[in-house]
Amino acid sequence: MSADTRAQRRRAGVRLWLPGLWLGLLCLAALAAPWIAPHDPLAQDLMLERLPPAWVGGAEPGYWLGTDSLGRDVLSRIVWGARIALVVALIAASAACLLGSALGLVAGYFGGWPDRVVSRLVDVWMAFPPVLFAILLVAVLGAGLHSVILAIAIIDWTRFARVIRAEAMVQARMDYVHSARIGGAGRIGTLLTEVLPNVLPSVIALLALEMGVAVIVEAILSFVNLSISTDDPTWGSMIAEGRASIHFAWWVLVFPLVALFLTVLSFSQFGEGLKDRFDPVLR
Amino acid sequence: MLLKTLLARLASMVITLFGVAVVVFVIIRVAPGDPIAMMLPPGASDADVERLRALYGLDRSMPEQFLIWLGGVLQGDFGTSISLRQPVAGLVLGRLPATLELSALALVIALVLGGFLAIFGARHRATPLEAGVDLTNGAALSVPDFLWGLVLILLFGVLWPVLEISGRVSPRLDLPFATQFYLVESILRLRFDLTADLLSHMIMPALALALPLAAIIAQLLKQSLKEVLNLDYVTLARVRGYSELRVILREGLRNAALPTLTLVGVQFTFLIGGTVIVERLFSYEGLGNMAIDAVINRDLPLIQGIVLLFAVIFILVNLAVDLTYSLLNPRLRHG
To answer: Would residue A168 count as lying in a domain?
Structure first.
């Protein structure tokens, strides 16, 4: 094994445990939100508006990361916001993954007209600016968490379909697939028992990457005020408020931004780390 | 060969565009909100509603509406914006230059930054400096333009306020421009004071859009440079006494450019797609910002026009990349 490969392996290790640590903590915080959030994330108190974080002069004890323009506790809103971010990441990314992988497998393995239909759909989908597509869909479906999840699944299946189609195509030409067929296995059976397990590592790595995308899309949608109602604590709506009051209350923007930044970075590094880990050359 | 490729690509492009038109039409016509109800004052009579529905063609069957709409689109008639009460074509074309200038500036930044990082990394390959380049690339790549925009606003709008965080040009300036291509015109008219003002508004959004693309260019270009630098003829150039940097620039870059080009084309469409939210973030008056307003106002004709225009741009960029690739690739040129 060359030094280059070994360094890559070590990097892959760090890429897995460091993001894993942050995501694990975030999951715990999201699950335990009712107990660990110091305040009600929705409680407004105009006497306490725009309090700075605890270590800055003029702070109020108990409001560690300060308050926003309605006097709501920033830390509590970030903790509750993690719930929404993670729910969207989990459900929307899984839905996009199921839809896209299924279509990609069928297109890549069977070829012919299923492949032509799927490929043409992917072409059409890729001609839309994804953010505009998402905003349009949510506007049509009506604002709300269901719409956000549905929109992400409807838009992002192509990310899976493109990669899995190409991989299934390669696998379909392999000797082991031919021998399974000669051995009497049906086409669907071969697809599920021979091809699917071999493309699964890519599916899992893509899923981790897609979770990061889902988190950012939800943040963008709530930033333009199309996700769930503005009162509910989402990182995107907190960022929108922080952007508006940036010149006199930097903490309203900075802390949700840090949470979002770390989460998106973690998902994508975790996904890349998985990709390296599954890479047979590096293993 | 080239002509055949071109015709095949054009045919495919038309089919894709038709698909886009169908999807847009279907999405918009299932929208539950009634745009007519929003245009009328409260207390309008049913007759008023019917009159407006007929005016906008909303009283026909779905396929009829689609054909009427498509027929109009093919003649350059994209309908009338419901919220702004002006022809969509004019509104959209008026905003297009702002978005094109922003995307072009971002592309230039991405190419320069990515090219620099690639050459720097290849020059210092297998040293900690290369690892530094890899780390920078990794970070730039895994965080999207929206977040880079926010980080830049904090850095250069608040912490060290040297750049403008909203708008396209300072409102106090009166503009002598005849077209919407402000940046180009300010340079052509030698009004560099205006160029500076425009750039102080555009650099942050352009940089936010450019960072992920710059990282991709740096990664791929560095990889192909390193491969090229181990080839015999490059070693020969080195033996003949050329400096390492010159070898990279002369021999390496020429051969590494082609694989980079294809990827840049695809990624450039992502960059253009990113303008939608980045323009919103920086209140930059381009097509993307207009699109979000149109969605919020349920302005169906305007949304259709903008989405179609984006689709045309995406498809044209891909076509241009394909053609450049076939022109530059010697294996395909004589095929």
So the answer is: yes
Asked whether the beta carbons of A74 and A100 are under 8 A apart, the reply is no
User: The domain B94-290 belongs to what CATH superfamily?
Assistant: MetI-like (1.10.3720.10)
Q: Is B120 buried (19+), middle (13-18) or exposed (0-12) by CB count in 10 A? A: middle
Give the separation between CA A153 and CA A176, rounded to whole angstroms: 33
Residue of chain B whose Cα is closest to the Cα of A266? B142
> CA-to-CA distance for A219 and A228, rounded, in angstroms?
11
Q: What is the dihedral of CA B194, B199, B201, B205, to 10 degrees?
A: 160
pLDDT in tens, B72-101: 888 888 888 888 888 999 999 999 999 999
Intervals of chain B under pLDDT 70? 1-2, 30-43, 56-58, 330-335
| Cross-chain residue pair B292–A272, CB shorter than 8 Å | no
Residues near B108 by beta carbon (within 8 Å), at least 6 away in sequence: none
Report the alpha-carbon distance of residue A79 to residue A82 in Å, rounded. Answer: 5
> Model pTM?
0.90
Candidates A213, A243, A251, partner chain B, best to mutate (most B CBs within 10 A): A243
Q: 3-state class of B33 per DSSP?
A: coil
